[in-house]
Amino acid sequence: MNRLRFLIARTLRQEAPISALSDPRPALMAELAGKRVALVGNARSLAQGHSGRAIDAADLVIRINRAPMPEAESHGTRTDWLALAVRPGAGDLARLAPSRILWMSHKRKRLPWGVANSPGFYLYPLGDWTRLRDALGAPPTTGLMMIDLLATSDLSALDLYGFDFFASLSLTGSRGAAQVPHDFAAEKAWVDALIARDPRIRLTAG
């Protein structure tokens, strides 16, 4: 598909041609199988810790949206996959250099051509977004969608860093919980229940 055809499909909300640009889900699952994965959220509390070395020691490091990395000591340095629900900022993709970009947002009109045309591109299915929204009673965050996706794979371990469910706010903005459309209490309960039944998943402090 060329850029013009993509823009037309995006404008007309034609899901099928946009989905055709995505790597198939089995390709992701194969890449995750047997891996120790670090999923790095953007909670401000992570910047106060010393998790950088542990993050970089994972087989696969996944970051979210603008993926701020204030210090290697707290955040590590690697980015293998980048999960986006916002347009990347100027220079973000060059700075992070992910091998795979996942578009998690249900808002296809925000999907940039450069992201959709990137190697390893993956389009998060609308059905999965809707399922989580219905379960939470609110739109899911990018982090929760990634946790849900990763939990369906055969990874060996999933460590969650920088997830405090907005207790310390986000490194990428100054909005409070009441100013964003997510239900963080519901997301915490969802993650706690998942961890209780899946011993592969651990939530670190921060």
From TrEMBL:
Cellular compartment(s): Endomembrane system; Membrane
Main location: membrane
Membrane topology, record value: Single-pass membrane protein
Superkingdom as given in the UniProt entry: Bacteria
InterPro entries (UniProt xref): Glyco_trans_29, GT29-like_sf
Pfam families attached to this UniProt entry: Glyco_transf_29
Official protein name in the record: Glycosyltransferase family 29 protein
Species of origin: Albidovulum marisflavi
